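Worked Example 4.2. Consider the chain below.
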Amino acid sequence: MAYKKSKETKQALIQAAKKLFSEKGFNKTSMRDIAKEVGITHPLAYYYYKGKHDIANEILDNHFYELSKIFNNYMKPKDDTLLFLLVLIKFVFREVKQNQKDLDFYIEAYRNNYSSTHETDNILIEYTLLIAKELDLSLDYDHAYLSIVLSGSVWNQLYYEKLEKGKNISEKEIRDTTDLIRWTYIGIDKNFILEKIEESYAALDEIPVQNVRLLYD
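Applying the procedure from the previous section yields the following structure tokens:
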């Protein structure tokens, strides 16, 4: 019974966070707000999550997992895992962009240094190692991890320049630059990556929008 209650409380915190992130935005929502929405004490909320960053972590990971299952109905890794991953990431972000509140939360959450145990990052590292193996590149876990950290930092900085400083940078430029940084860092030829990026846009066009919400109104 204790396990069931714990699971139910965690789910209630997730749902409350989604509601408040949608209404107030990630940056303006506090852990105290989330606890109050659920009807539990502030300290008790911290028993289940380290903070709102960890809750955001779980929301993003669950969304990525749900979309990954859908995506597998349209595309398989087969012998080109790099193309598969390029399309998958674009597919997920395209879904997020269907709703402005989802997009705002996604960018705010990723621009905050909210967790070092982000499950989606672990999945990306596994794919990176597999891609390196397919392309006969020597790559260890630490190097793969650094490629994720580096490209994530570039993504964050470019969105900061776009949103906070008003720089004229398109979302496509941000996505393409992030991909180039990630994959050239592990030793893949730049021109090869550029070709794969263009292929990924064409492949994405063949997959319909699913309208899977990250948050909800």
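Residues 57-205 form one domain. The two ends are 32 Å apart (CA to CA). Compare this with Example 4.1 before moving on.
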